[in-house]
Amino acid sequence: MSATFLGTPAFPDAARAALSDTQLRRNLSHATTTIRGKRAGVVGEVDEWEQLRLAGEGIKNRVLRHLPDYLEQLERSLTAAGARVHWARDAAEANAIVVEIARKHETEEVVKVKSMATQEIELNDALERAGIHAWETDLAELIVQLGDDLPSHILVPAIHRNRAEIREIFLREMGRVGKPAPDGLTDDPAALAAAARAHLREKFLRAKVAVSGANFAVAETGTLTVVESEGNGRMCLTLPEVLVSVVGIEKVLPTFADLDVMLQLLPRSSTGERMNPYTSTWTGVTPGDGPQEVHVVLLDNGRTDVLADPTGRQALRCIRCSACLNVCPVYERTGGHAYGSVYPGPIGAILTPQLRGVGTDPQTDSLPYASSLCGACFEVCPVRIDIPEVLVHLRGEVVEAHKAASRIPSVQDMAMKAVSWAFSSSARTGAAEKAAALGGRLAARISHDAPGGRSVLGAVPGPAAAWSDSRDVPVPATESFRQWWERTDGGRVPEGTDGEEGSR
Questions:
Q1: Which pairs from 373-377 meet CB under 8 Å and 24+ separation?
Q2: Residue 489: strand, helix, or coil
Q3: d(CA 476, CA 442)
Q4: Which of 212, 268, 322, 457 could form a disulfide with 473 if both were Cys (CB 3.0 to 4.6 A apart)?
Q5: How many CB atoms within 10 Å of residue 197?
Q6: What confidence score (pLDDT) does residue 503 get?
Q7: Which runs of consecutive H residues, i.e. helices, occur in 242-369?
Q8: At a CB cut-off of 8 Å and minimum separation 6, what does 315 contact?
Q9: Which residues of 397-417 are buried (b: 16+ CB within 10 A; e: fewer)?
Q10: DSSP code of residue 368
């Protein structure tokens, strides 16, 4: 069985472990910095980039408003083109469909195009349990699979590995499952790519069944699209007799013209290229050319639940470009494994809790808090997903879910109720201010100076200790506003002073 995210600790614990891995941090910093630079260069060439973003947002919003209609149109177009359409409510149904197709063709292996949807439903494990080997053919996915590892990035799943580590994985593992790595293999990228190409070639040539996802599915024509950089996807999409594509229902586009907009946004945002080296499109079955049996599995797996949330549904606009990961200061320091999902980074922090639901799993509930809310993710998103807005929205849902599950109020709830009680009465507010001022005078005796000349307290004991672990606690004012107002006669400077008292 391959590694899974099952049992991953909550984000704070996983992130703390990742931060102690200096090699991981160096690998991530180098890779994300490089991708950010490439993206900025090619986006800067497009004068109407913001108009393209708005167009992409508009297209996806139109899809979400009329999703049932476009899905039915897609089914009709695919069927007319000779494809067989299957509907899967969840991962179990989708996996069962793919396994049944493979068994029908009496194959013990399938080759795969890189696909987030098949990772989401853990298709490889389902196939393995059925005695069918699934071979990843994307270079980065191959590295992850051979290393019995987990993906750490949407675009570059092996971003946490450097060339020396990849060389060791190839030398150690390739011979166990196929053509071994050549003797004397170096860590030169071209040599590593050549070793992967030779290892995969025999699998391409003998495979009867291939499995893919799709970046986009055009309702108007029934055309599916996959973009990639290596050509391995093209081999999977053209050589086998049978092709099965697992496609999230949000991937549909209304018209072929809409695909034009997306194919300008996606490569610039993901790989920092003007266009992908390989853009494969196929429409059903073409007699005598390519797979002669084509299946499309339209996957829900929680997406209709996301669609029902007016704020959270914008996550379904995502085109899986990974631009948000590459600019996120949290992701750059912790990597993708800390998120405990095939969808890491900012988009994973909003998509995973919505697909899984909140209030039942501490790991999932921790993800909306895996952000500084700096907003860099929104600035680079090609379809303008306001990730910070959804993060705050989901934090509220997590809090409400925990309140509903427990009859014991939290410390935060009790504190907010106390503040509400004090602020609802002028007399109580005044008394609270005097108490705070007295506390400020006492606290000033034990405070220390922080950078910038601010007086701060150390760690706060009791329930607030966790809050003060990561924040400076300022010393309360030694005089309340009301006391200052009375002393200065409404802010007027008393005669015979230099103005300092009245201006504080």
A1: 374/329, 376/324, 376/327, 376/328, 376/329, 377/323, 377/324, 377/327, 377/328, 377/345, 377/346, 377/347
A2: coil
A3: 9
A4: 457
A5: 16
A6: 40
A7: 256-270, 303-307, 323-327, 329-334, 345-356, 362-366
A8: 306, 347, 350, 351, 354, 385, 390
A9: bbbeeeeeeeeeeeeeeeeee
A10: G
What DSSP letter does each residue of 59-81 carry, written as one string?
HHHHHHHTHHHHHHHHHHHHHHT
| CB-based contacts of 246, cutoff 8 Å, min separation 6 | 88, 94, 98, 115, 117, 118, 121, 123, 211, 212, 213, 297, 299
Of 267, 197, 266, 273, the residue nearest 235 (C-alpha): 197
Written as six digits, the tokens of 282 are 């196929």
The residue behind tokens 């948000």 is 324
The reported pLDDT for the residue numbered 388 is 98
With beta carbons less than 8 A apart as the criterion, state whether 276 and 267 touch: yes
Rounded distance between C-alpha atoms, residue 502 and residue 488, angstroms: 6
- Name residue, tokens 């306001």: 386
Q: CB 184: neighbour CB atoms within 10 A?
A: 7
C-alpha to C-alpha distance for 123 and 100, rounded to whole angstroms: 12
Place of tokens 């093209």: 234
Could you report the per-residue pLDDT of 40-67, keeping only the tens digit for each? 999 999 999 999 999 999 999 999 999 9
Give the DSSP letter of residue 150: -
Query: Quick one: pLDDT at residue 496?
Result: 58
- Residue ranges, the chain, pLDDT below 50: 500-504
Token code pair at residue 240: 């086998």
Task: Decide: 152 and 325 in contact? Cβ < 8 Å.
Answer: no
Buried residues in 15-54 as b, exposed as e (16+ CB within 10 A):
beebeeeeebbebbeebbeebbebbeebbeeeeebeebbe
